[in-house]
Design brief:
The chain has 11 helices and 13 strands. It is an alpha/beta fold and 322 residues long.
Length: 322
């Protein structure tokens, strides 16, 4: 295990060195590009923040394009997701589907090769005036005018998986233009993390709402996300009693075997109601949703503190003019 970590760390450092020295080319787009990413393996609220930022830009009258790799999708070709599309999570990935549902009037482009996706956007006759790269902190093939890094201070950022959550050394936060703390605002480790960063640090606050029958307060639950314990804490904060729970892996595919395990849990607890995240909800087949009473929990992120929000808006505006 130690040898694997050493090899992984070496490869990450070599790759970043090659980008830093421009040995690997970085494409500079004519359209301003914003990157939103993590330095950890997930669980920072990246998707809700992409939704928040895209809707804010759309509200300003801008025409953003969101580019996502479509992790765990079954298709391989580039797919443009527009209004009233009929794509499923299997075709485009759970996160692009979720983003498209929550960002009305904002196109989402699914392409593993982000530089190619950006080049495509440039050819669309000035249809898009800014681009948001989803989960792109480590994907450095495209130059960005604003590199936003989300931090969950509750995570172990001292080592790589399985013990820790780092994708690359924490010192590399210096590449970011700003940090946004999404979770763990009051943890003792937060100051030690932010003290190592010389740029602006903002705080984002999360809020949750249930979608479905709001009168249902008891059932079973399941989720396939990076921080499953936070989902259970959220259910508790909403006054929901989860009699039983299953943690699936992040980006879980809801095939027959997976659905059978959920049905067994429902039967075991003599329940017909279940609770899950919106990210999981969009992958559940209609037959399953019609058979049981489901309630999903949607998380939203925003920069609510007035001083932080004003500073962030000013910084964003300046960067988009570059």
């Amino acid at each position: 295990m130690i040898l694997i970590k050493i090899i992984y760390s070496l490869l990450v450092n070599i790759r970043n060195f090659m980008y830093d020295k421009e040995i690997i080319p970085i494409y500079q787009s004519k359209i301003p590009v914003i990157s939103i990413g993590n330095i950890t393996t997930g669980g920072t609220g990246k998707t809700p923040f992409v939704i928040f930022l895209a809707n804010y830009l759309k509200g300003l009258g801008r025409q953003p394009l969101i580019i996502s790799r479509g992790y765990k999708r079954q298709s391989t070709q580039q797919i443009l997701i527009t209004k009233n599309h009929k794509y499923t999570a299997k075709e485009i990935g759970d996160e692009p589907l979720l983003i498209s549902l929550m960002c009305k009037g904002v196109d989402v482009l699914v392409n593993k090769k982000r530089a190619n996706a950006v080049r495509w956007a440039e050819k669309q006759d000035k249809k898009y005036d800014c681009i948001i790269l989803d989960d792109a902190f480590q994907h450095r093939s495209v130059h960005r005018v604003f590199d936003i890094l989300l931090i969950n201070a509750l995570q172990n950022m001292n080592s790589y998986p399985p013990k820790g959550a780092l994708r690359e050394p924490f010192k590399n936060v210096r590449r970011a233009d700003c940090l946004i703390i999404t979770k763990g605002h009051d943890t003792k480790s937060l100051s030690s993390l932010t003290d190592r960063f010389k740029g602006p640090v903002f705080r984002a606050d999360s809020s949750f709402q249930t979608i479905g029958n709001k009168n249902i307060k008891q059932g079973v639950s399941f989720c396939g996300i990076a921080g499953p314990h936070l989902f259970l804490e959220t259910l508790n904060s909403l006054g929901i009693n989860s009699k039983d729970h299953i943690d699936f892996k992040d980006h879980q595919k809801y095939d027959e075997k997976t659905l059978d395990s959920i049905e067994r849990m429902l039967q075991k607890n003599n329940e017909t109601a279940f609770f899950t995240t919106f990210k999981d909800w969009v992958k559940l087949p209609k037959k399953f949703l019609n058979k049981y009473t489901g309630v999903c929990v949607d998380m939203s992120l925003s920069i609510d503190r007035t001083a932080d929000w004003e500073r962030f808006k000013k910084m964003l505006s300046i960067r988009l003019q570059q």
